[in-house]
Each structure stands twice: as structure tokens, then as C-alpha cells.
Design a protein that fits this description.
The chain has about 475 residues and is mainly α. It has 18 helices and no strands.
Length: about 475
């Protein structure tokens, strides 16, 4: 079976690293832009054609709870992505193939579990986070329909991650563009033409996810490379499943802890009423642009580190971290300026309610200048994950980000009657966690442990560095 096969991939282990990073990064960025765009279109159409309660229902609380469950399985399957990148970098075709089929099996099983859990517990979970009475019925409808489409969503996520792990970041972009267009057209059809409201938005979302899942599965099945998907081979490989879980479980737990802490924050935000919830939902769509950029750099650095670590090109691995860090700073500063000075104009896209616009602008101008505090968390954790080092970064993130936020809400927020004091927990937790990562990355001795775990020679690694 050909290693490269059809569909060109980036030369991650060779060539000019700035150029290769940008060639790999931009398709991911554009892909996540289109992913964010179809989420944003949902909010725009609902806010303009249905109302403030519907906007609050499809954003805020619902998004946090969905991320709580879906994020765990996406994080868990990320272990497969790291292993595929390392096998690909080292030239182990058999390892790539087995990991691909184990990852797909994990997505099918995880999607089935999430569908059942989501259908049964959606309304109960919304009640736990103090969802207002005028929103909870609509939010329950949206969540239950969304979870019906969980399997296609997870299949797309693992499939696109497989392609990115071997250096192909372009085809996942094409799939997301198609998915975005389909979602927009279906939103207009179900919400504007058929007047189906929140139900229409949810149906449009799961149908568009089904389209993206079909596209990625067909692409993998038609591949001639070692990552070709052969349906009869979809199964759990015991040894590989253990490796995937070892690397991916900390990422999954980290995602859960993020979502739980955000759920605590969302519950606090919900006490300020529907206007604030809608304003925060609108800000979340702008905020999503930053997470789109920093997340794309996180995927980039994990793949570059993973492949170069597998190929034992350790200096190139370190340089890719420095390049991703520098580029992420540049992009973040540009976004901070855009959000701060253009926040009010952007709020008009999501609502015509003056109170929502004013509150959304205030939130945006408060939080946007603090995004740069998060960069070290994403880049350094992504770099370490690329070598298989995931447990300690998970602990630092859970305690530095998640626990800090919860403690902030419990002990600080009650003294202030302003939603901004809830949101200050973000920059405080980012700054603390960034300091933890900087110290651990440079002083933790983690790299030597990963070398020993892979059977690489410390002496040889120092020469290659």
C-alpha cells in the first residue's frame, strides 16, 4: 500500500518550516472559519427571524452542555491523531492503518452513547444550570435534535483529524465549505421559509453534519495510502486502543473540566436574565473567531511535533513550536484590535434589541484585550501532546483554568452585582495557567521522559537537536 497515495500532503518533516506551517495552518483556519460561520449563521438567522429567547436557546447554555459531552469524545479520539502523526512520521504504514480503524470504531461507539445520553438527560441538564423558564423548552428541543446527529459529527471529527495527522489539511477545508453552504441553505429553508424556528435550525445542523461525515468517509475509503478506510477492518485493536486512551483520555477529561467550569460560569450568567444571556451568546460567536485561530495553531503544532518527533527530527520539532507561538501572537493581536474597535458593529448582526447590543459590546470590549494571555496554554500543551505527553498538561489546565474559574465564581462573584465579574475569571485563569505551562515546558524534564518511553537514545537526540 502506498504511503503517500492520492491526495498530496504537506512535507511536514522537511522544507522551510515557516512556509510549511502556514501551508498547513491556513486550510485549518479557513475550515474552522466556515465551521464557526455556520454556527454564527444559526445565531444570526434565529436572532433576526425568531427572537431573543430563541437566540438564547441555541447558544449559551446549550453550547456549553453540548461541548461537555461531545468534547470528551473528541478529546479522547485525539489520541488516535497523535499516534497516526507519529507513525506517519516514522514510516510505519501498518501502525497508521490499525490506528485509523480503531479511531473510527471509537467514534461509532462514542456517538451511540452520546445519542442516548443526550436524548434522555437534555432537559434535566438544562435545569441544573438554571436555564430561564422562557428559554428551557426551546433549548431542550434543540439539544435533543442535535444529539440525534452525534455519530456523523464524531465521524467527521475523527476523519478530518486523520487527514490532518498525515499532513492533509486541505480536504477537511473543502468538506467544511460544503457543510457550511448546506447548513445556510437549510437554515433559510427551515427557519425563514417554513417558519420552523429552533427546530429548523437543529435539523439543518445535523443534516449538514451528515453531509460532511459522508464526504470524509468516502475520501478515506478511496485513498490509496496507508490511512485508507476499509469498513470490514473497523474494530478496536487492543494495544492501540490502550495507547489512544492513554493519550486521549487526559484531553477528553480536560475538555470535560473546561465545559464543567464554563457550565458553572454559564449558570452564574443565567442569573442576570435573558438579555445578558443573549448578549453573551452573541459575544460567543465573535469569541469563537479567536478560538478558531488559536485552535488551528494548536492542531498545527501537535501535528508538526508529532511527525517530527516520530521522525526523530527534534530541532525541527522545537522550531515548529517557536514558529507557531510567534504566528499566534501576531494573529491574536490583530483579532483583539478588531473586536475592541468593531464590537458594537458586529453586535448588530445578531440582534436588533438595543439592550442586547449595548451589553454585548461591553462584554466584548472587556474580554477581547485579554485573549493573548491564553496563547502559551494552547501552543505548549499542543506541543507536548504531539510527543504523547498529555497527563501533566491536563492537570495544569484543570487546576489552573477550570478550578480557578469555579473558585472565582464561588468566592468572588457573590460580592459584585455585575456580569463582568463572572467573566473576569477568564483572563485570571489564563494568566495563571500560562505561567504553569511556561515553567513546566522549560523545566519539567518531560521531553527526556518521552524519548525514553519511545526507546529513542538521549545521546542521539542531543546530536539531532
Amino acid at each position: 500500500m502506498a504511503r503517500r497515495g492520492n491526495g498530496a500532503v504537506n512535507n511536514i518533516t522537511g522544507g522551510n518550516i515557516w512556509q510549511q506551517v502556514l501551508l498547513y495552518f491556513f486550510p485549518i483556519l479557513l475550515g474552522t472559519f466556515f465551521q464557526q460561520m455556520y454556527n454564527t449563521v444559526d445565531a444570526v438567522i434565529v436572532g433576526q427571524f425568531v427572537g431573543t429567547q430563541a437566540l438564547a436557546a441555541v447558544g449559551g447554555t446549550v453550547g456549553t452542555l453540548i461541548n461537555l459531552l461531545v468534547g470528551f469524545f473528541v478529546g479522547l479520539s485525539s489520541g488516535a491523531t497523535v499516534i497516526i502523526a507519529q507513525y506517519w512520521g516514522s514510516g510505519d504504514d501498518s501502525g497508521v492503518s490499525k490506528t485509523v480503524h480503531t479511531g473510527i470504531a471509537l467514534s461509532l461507539a462514542g456517538g451511540a452513547v452520546l445519542t442516548v445520553v443526550g436524548l434522555i438527560f437534555s432537559r434535566m441538564a438544562l435545569g441544573w444550570v438554571s436555564t430561564p423558564d422562557d428559554v428551557i423548552d426551546l433549548a431542550t428541543v434543540y439539544m435533543r435534535i442535535y444529539f440525534v446527529g452525534t455519530i456523523p459529527s464524531l465521524i467527521y471529527n475523527i476523519g478530518s483529524s486523520i487527514l490532518r495527522a498525515v499532513g492533509d489539511s486541505k480536504r477537511p477545508l473543502y468538506f467544511l465549505i460544503i457543510c457550511c453552504v448546506v447548513n445556510i441553505l437549510l437554515d433559510l429553508f427551515f427557519v425563514v421559509a417554513l417558519k420552523m424556528g429552533v427546530t429548523g435550525v437543529a435539523i439543518a445542523t445535523i443534516l449538514s453534519q451528515l453531509v460532511s461525515a459522508i464526504l470524509v468517509v468516502v475520501t478515506l475509503m478511496r485513498s490509496e495510502a496507508s490511512f485508507q478506510l476499509i469498513p470490514r477492518k473497523i474494530a478496536f485493536a487492543r494495544g492501540l486502543l490502550g495507547q489512544i486512551v492513554r493519550i486521549g483520555l487526559p484531553a477528553g477529561l480536560q475538555s470535560v473540566m473546561y465545559s464543567l467550569s464554563n457550565t458553572v460560569l454559564q449558570a452564574a450568567i443565567n442569573t442576570f436574565g435573558t438579555t445578558v444571556i443573549a448578549a453573551y451568546t452573541a459575544f460567543g460567536k465573535l469569541d469563537g473567531l479567536f478560538w478558531m485561530v488559536i485552535g488551528a495553531f494548536g492542531v498545527t503544532v501537535t501535528t508538526f511535533v508529532g511527525q517530527n518527533f516520530g521522525a526523530q527530527k527534534f530541532e525541527r520539532m522545537r522550531k515548529s513550536v517557536r514558529v507557531c507561538m510567534a504566528l499566534s501572537v501576531i494573529f491574536t493581536l490583530a483579532l483583539e484590535a478588531l473586536f475592541y474597535f468593531g464590537g458594537e458593529m458586529c453586535m448588530h448582526l445578531f440582534s436588533s434589541d438595543t439592550a442586547v447590543i449595548l451589553e454585548g459590546t461591553r462584554i466584548t470590549q472587556t474580554l477581547a484585550p485579554t485573549f493573548i494571555l491564553y496563547i502559551c496554554v494552547e501552543i505548549l500543551s499542543g506541543a507536548m501532546r504531539g510527543t504523547g505527553e498529555s497527563f501533566v498538561p491536563m492537570l495544569m489546565t484543570c487546576f489552573g483554568v477550570c478550578a480557578t474559574r469555579v473558585l472565582w465564581v464561588v468566592f468572588v462573584v457573590p460580592h459584585f452585582d455585575d456580569v463582568l465579574w463572572v467573566l473576569y475569571s477568564y483572563p485570571v485563569s489564563w494568566a495563571l495557567t500560562s505561567m504553569l505551562f511556561i515553567v513546566y515546558y522549560f523545566k519539567g524534564g518531560w521531553f527526556h521522559r518521552r524519548l525514553l518511553a519511545h526507546g529513542f537514545s538521549l545521546e542521539e537526540s542531543s546530536k539531532k537537536a
